[in-house]
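A favour, since you know our structure tokens better than I do. Go ahead and set the record down below.
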Amino acid sequence: MSSPARMPWAFVSSLSLTVLISYGTIFYAFALFVDPMGRELGWGKSELTAAYSLALGTSALFAVPVGRLIDLGYGRTVMTGGSVLAAVLLALWSQVESYPAFVLIWAGLGLSMSSVFYEPGFAVLARRLGFLARRGITFMTLVAGFASTVFIPLTHLLIEHLGWRNALLVLAAFNLAICAVVHAIAIPPALKASQHASGQPRPLTPSARHVLLKASFWCFVASSVLQGLIAAGLPIHLIPLLTENGYSLEMAVIAFSIIGPAQVAGRMTMAMGERAFGMKGIGVVTLGLGVLAFGLLPLLSPGSWLVAAFAALFGASNGMMTIVRALLPPEMFGRESYGTVQGMIAMPVRLTTAAAPFLFGALWAWWGSYAAVMVLCLGMSFCSLGFFLVVLLLQKRRENPENSLALDG
């Protein structure tokens, strides 16, 4: 009788560290370079953030091909190459003088994002760990959830002491000396498609192409897109939204600072409660927290400390949704072609989230206040939860066809 497979914690921890560094150096650090670059090069914030949005769009276009490559066994090549590319492009960014070159650099960084962020990391874990991947993915999100906590103050110190150009060289070194090396050494060669980490045959499951024919899949995508729009668009506008509604700048900043820790706290609570509620139940709770947050926000009086409760609910919902998007699709749509399916979900989510900050700003300008933005967020959170409930209903009917026939009769 064979012993149960053990979790390779050294592998999971090292890969989680690289995802933390990738998010910290590519995704979060950008905001700290806007002001020093604008002062030196004379570029406006809209020009700089346009290049960043382009990168998010580019990453969406590469999400499915990257996932497919990982499914075919090229995870080591994909993630190592993504980290090397990030290092090279960050180094080129440190020398940039022309805006077209800056735009091209960020278009390339979009490809790097699609190769080293959560989705490829999840796909590599799923291929390496098999049925142990749930614990590994949850652990990765807990570790990488501290990316902004670590790299925002670190990048600030680097810019203060070294200047923004040399700070970028240090961030490039993180990607080359740590991420690329860990990916090249830690990610194992491809397993045969018919086996997973425990050596047992993989269960026969639908291919990615068949998943596209499922109405439940597209409802899940719609739910994810709506939640992603809120998660990407609101943080950029949260402080001016709160100050417009009578909160002091200090209280608005405190509320904003609660979101990050709440994301990690939500993931930790989710890890402890998954056995009791199941991943489908956790998904309902996750999206329900979003509805509760935006239902609470318009009811708050200016200056009320309950704005901290809104920030905590919003942050917890965002943090938990990352795990729901990673763990629920294989449970509902099959474990085969995990990376490709994750890419198919990530592509529309990233395309829409790239435009979310601009769309929220345009809505504010058109309405003349953030009231319309709050109503939109509440409506989208309700719709996201509604689509998710439809997913569960469709899955239940598929799993119990005889009950559905009886009801139809």
Residues 249-296 form the longest helix (48 residues).
